[in-house]
Amino acid sequence: xxxxxxxxLTDLEDAMQASAAIRFGAQMIVxxxxxxxxxxxxxxxxxxxxxxxxx
Length: 55
What we know:
Layout: H1 2-6, H2 12-23, E1 28-30, E2 43-45, H3 47-54
Parallel strand pairs: 1-2
C-alpha cells in the first residue's frame, strides 16, 4: 500500500496492482484499460496483445 501511494497513478486500485506486480516480479500487467497504467513502472498490455505473444 505504501509503495502504491508513491507511484503517481491516479487510481488507487490500479496503483495497488502495479505495486503488487513490482513486488512479485511480474513482467507485465494485462488490462483492457491501458490509459490508467501509462505511468506504471510495470508495462501494461491488453489481453489481445498477450494472446498474440502466446501464439
